[in-house]
Amino acid sequence: MDIKQIQELIKFVSRSGVNEVAIEQEDFKITIKTNQTPTVVHATVPQVPLVQAAAPVASAPTAPAAVATPAASAAEDTSKYITIKSPMIGTFYRSSSPDKPMFVNVGDEIGTGKVVCIIEAMKLFNEIESEVSGRIVKILVDNASPVEYDQPLFLVEPI
């Protein structure tokens, strides 16, 4: 295995969200490990409680109407906002270090090119810049949480 193949393997592992890959050949052995949590676990854990909660709600005759109304109004409220999404898999940070101020808070006005967060991927800290101008309405991810590609991070009200 040459260096170019190793580099391609490292890129593949970082994009796929796999925690560990080991390859062993006759005269060569390589193991690539990341400190990322498995993306599959994060996708399946929230769905289990929702499925369990859906069965009791369906058995109650008046509950579905009450549950459907807030869900419909929530969908209408977010439709006027622009979503800033994660461009990569990694760990989301709201500031450059624990002792530094947050890049943005709810209510802050941002412009195109303003750094809104950092995403750490493979020990590299990537500043994420806003591509829109507006006011931060909601921060959808907790600090130091793992994020996936194209996961919504912020809701922005255009100005």
TrEMBL record:
InterPro entries: AcCoA_biotinCC (IPR001249), Biotin_Carboxyl_Carrier/Decarb (IPR050709), Biotin_lipoyl (IPR000089), Single_hybrid_motif (IPR011053)
GO cellular component, one term: acetyl-CoA carboxylase complex
Pathway: Lipid metabolism; fatty acid biosynthesis
A Pfam family of this chain: Biotin_lipoyl
Stretches assigned to the Lipoyl-binding domain: 81-157
GO MF assignments: acetyl-CoA carboxylase activity
Gene Ontology annotations of biological process type: fatty acid biosynthetic process
Protein name (record): Biotin carboxyl carrier protein of acetyl-CoA carboxylase
Species whose genome carries this gene: Pedobacter rhizosphaerae
